[in-house]
Amino acid sequence: MMTREGWTRADAAERQVWLDGLLERLPLERMRDDGGAPRFRHPSGVGLVLIFEAVVRVGLDAERFMRAEALGARVPTVFSPEVHVPLREVRVPAHLCATEPVAFEGRGWLLRDAVPRLRSWLDARGWRLPSECEWEAQWALGPDAGLTFGAMGELCLDDWHASYQGAPSDASPWGTGAELVKTGSRDAAQLESAIASRRPVRTVGLVQARPVIDLVGSWERAP
Description:
This protein is of the alpha+beta class. It has helices spanning 4-9, 12-25, 62-70, 111-123, 132-141, 191-196, and strands spanning 29-30, 39-41, 47-51, 54-58, 88-92, 95-98, 109-110, 154-156, 180-182, 198-200, 206-207, 212-214. It has a domain at 54-91 and 101-210. β2 (39-41) and β3 form a beta hairpin.
């Protein structure tokens, strides 16, 4: 599996074989190795970094909710287990993730035609939007993975739901309507604030997105 532990155990030759295979499939340029996760650049100029497969803690419980509220996150005044993301551990598959959200036409697109045009732009490159769980995992890594976050909301692949009753128990998106916006400025420097700040896309005027590229394969030998 594409874990950080697997990458660390692999020798230079094994890593190079995996990287060569990836670069044969995708039009990417390998960036200078700084000793961390591999980084790439797409011909469009988008920088990408490998997010290792990992089990991450996502969601909210009452304690985490109160910390988010204290940080000024946009949350209701009462914690509701039915409305907020259930606190749980999920396995997030390895993927390539844009180091910065992609901004269109300088500041993003007006909402009316933003989502269809954004998705067409992603589809044409074989990219997609992250699920809410993937986005939370990316935000938690933040600067450690070379990821930059701002105050503008980022679009996720999930549908918008008024509650989380019936939501997937894994990291997969809950629907693919791209109706969910997450906001997580690094000014707060707290994961709880980013988790709590979630809105339906219809309530925001500008959108941007952090492209994701799915990965298949592994550099680890089969047992």
